[in-house]
Amino acid sequence: MRLGRGRQDPQAVSAARTGLPAPPVWMRWLPVLYVAGLLVLEPMTPVDWPVSFVLVALPLVAAFAHGPTVVAATTVFAIVFEGVLAGTPCCAGRAVGYLWDRHYVASYVCTALVGALGTVLAAHRTHRERTLADVRFVADIAQRVLLKPVPHRIGGLRLDSLYLSADAEARIGGDLYEAVPTAYGVRLLIGDVRGKGLPAVETAAALLGAFREAAHDEPDLPALADRVETSMSRRATQLGGSELAERFVTAVFAEIPPGGNVVRVVNCGHPPPVLIRPGEVRELDRGRSAPPLNLGMLVGDTYTVDEYDFGPGDQLLLYTDGITETRDPAGTFYPLLQRLRSWGPLPPRELLENLHDDLRAYSHNRLTDDTAALSVYLLADEPSRAAPPPADAGRSGEPG
């Protein structure tokens, strides 16, 4: 999404920034259809007072989809057209015209007043649309900073991500994901912040920042999770307030070591990842989940690493509970595993596209929670490779 140089119309820039949909074609053409219908009815009306009086409403019809300039021009057109119809003797079987009849003069005045009102309304609507476009543009930028697009290829891994906000205007929420190539392998994170609104976004930003930094330094997943939790607890203490204990995040940390053909998982109260391979779709869950981040210190639990085979052609799907808690109109939860088994193995992009379309269809386009997903596929005959070890990797005591 790029901005061109030079001066441009603010509304056009706002629309280009956010991709706001233009009004429907039928709405843009509604004033023309309105006048065409009047021209059809006018000769068919056997009364002295023709239906041209309904032109009074034409400026308001135009205000639905057009700006103040078009509405003002439409008002002038309506007044002139009313005069043309009133002064034409043949209309409605009249023998003479009524161009300056007091009823028509009153119609001209009413049309001018309605046109002035329609112009003001159109200006107000346009201003609100520009404001909304700017807000959505800022939200897009914030999302790009907070949830950076994951690389589509890291060594022998192919990756893709999905994010759906339940609030179409907010664009960002408390769901998060990340993939970082390190000397210890490719490290993955999926998380869901409790709550909504700006506090959830702030918490997600703090967690992602801690993970992106610690992923390169900590030699194993328990140490990584512990460092992220320490950062989260420090951040919650700085924020203060009565909801300190409620600022927690469910998360899954995963690691695919270079050339290891295994995946290691630390689950912190989050829905377990799903392993997809030909003939098999299953959850990676051994019932040893730790508490959510920022709650572990309260209960004193430690992090447990679960290790699973992860060979060429296998795919790992990490997701937030917005997927499994999506409901159809009857209130039935979305059957994720059943859907994945019915689709069979798919490349990451196609898998997430299917998931996106199916979630919207299943919920009748009424998602009630933010949704995030991260898909990682190990290419056949090509081992997973991570980034080269950093210059100070030797200080960790573990080779890259």
UniProtKB/TrEMBL annotation:
Q: Which EC class does it fall in? A: hydrolase
Keyword Transport in annotation: no
Q: Which residues form the PPM-type phosphatase domain?
A: 157-378
Membrane spanning residue stretches: 25-41, 53-79, 104-123
Its ancestry begins with: Bacteria, Bacillati, Actinomycetota, Actinomycetes, Kitasatosporales
Q: Which UniProt keywords apply?
A: Hydrolase, Membrane, Transmembrane, Transmembrane helix
Q: Which SMART domains does its entry note?
A: PP2C_SIG
Mention one GO molecular function: protein serine/threonine phosphatase activity
EC numbers: 3.1.3.16
Q: Which protein, by its recorded name, is this?
A: PP2C family protein-serine/threonine phosphatase
Show the Pfam families listed in the entry: SpoIIE
